[in-house]
Amino acid sequence: MTLEELRKEIDSIDHQLLALFAARMEVSARIAAFKREQGLAVRDGGRERQKLREIAEACPPGLEEEAKRLWSLLFELSRGHQQRLMEEAAAPQRCGEAAAPRPPCRCGLLGRRLGHSYSPEIHRRLGDYEYRLYEVEPEELADFLADPTLAGLNVTIPYKKEVVPFCASLSETARRLGSVNTLVRRQDGRWHGDNTDAFGFAHMMKKSGIDPRGKKALVLGSGGAGVTVAAVLRELGASVTTISRSGPDHYGNLERHADAALLVNATPVGMYPQNGAAPLSLAGFPALIGVLDLIYNPARTALLLEAERRGIPHLDGLPMLVAQAARSSALFAGGAVEEQTIDAVERALRRSMENIVLVGMPGCGKSTIAALLAKRLGREAADADDLITERHGPIPALFAAEGEAGFRRRETEVLAELGRRSSLVIATGGGAVTREENYPLLHQNGRIVWLRRPLELLPTDGRPLSQAGELAKMYERRSPLYQRFADCTVDNDAAPEETVRRILEVLAL
Description:
Rossmann fold, 47% helix
């Protein structure tokens, strides 16, 4: 066969490829229309990676790399085609600006590993726009940000600095801090970068009631959050020292800062699921007038629980979270930030996140009331004794085999597991208050209700300690402990529905 004949054969194949390419791009255009209608992102990195693996496996031996390069180029061309079509169909705009009818504005939280986030719930309460979680790998960041259907994004670890080069403009705060946590699509389709964390922490400081002017403040953590906190505190007139793992001021020479008046934790130490950890002890800081922790899950970190024990004013990070979200929402929608809206959303979110924990004498009705209360609130009920029985067998048998000390260890394990969760209604065993270590486990995420019931109405069947001694003596010993644990007290001396009503009233639910 001559060279000319071979070239004609390739030309014939090329014509077939061109027809197939045109057909592929036509389908790609229909996919673009579907994605725009459904508010979906242009890039689907997971599908592309899977397709490349399938193509390499199906390819004739020796051509795997060439095939992967060819299809990678096809995917890139297809994405570009879809983006152009979507840009032509909808000129980018901010959510609050008038325009021709279009799908709801797409906003969301950008990060690499997001896990559970309260941001969608907060933004649902703040504005009328779609808000999703977007987990994006570093190599996918450029393509993701090029999606023209995205109107606004909050940005979290590890992309607060990485998104800066993609911004056509920056707010003064973002420029000064070198960190962006909010992206807003401009009229020309390019990104504007802002930093609403500074607004959020300023709101948190105001909410704390602490005046930092002229006072020494320690900021734990030199990352993005720590830099923002330090900048705001300096603007408010504080003398700021940042504590990090290295550098001149670190955790090994904290005694140099015993005169600090304010301490702010801007590290993730103590954050769920590592509940119970603390970056330091407050014992070496006798001059503290305030402790703030940017963590909001759990509501009371080990650091804040220590501040509570020492009588030091303290505050968790939920006000900052909601305030920065409200500022972002205003940027997305082109509106204003209303302080009363921030406070209302924070109160609603705090109420929905907090566990309701019932303590009280054996047989006082905790399990019954917990089940009714959970049903009324649309929550999950958790019974500590039921979980112990499920895992270790009947409680009387457990008492017989391991004694009260063994049972109490099992109980603390269950309470630790339940206490780190959120939005539960928890019924504890009657003796849960006899171990002091159970208090922080229950209090870290919950409000504790002492459920009181007249002694003559308390049953004793199947209750080892109630059978072993007189209830009156047990009540005398435990009553101060119930009072010590409880945030409030409700009498269970009426119909169960009435007791539920009383609890809802006292907790303002």
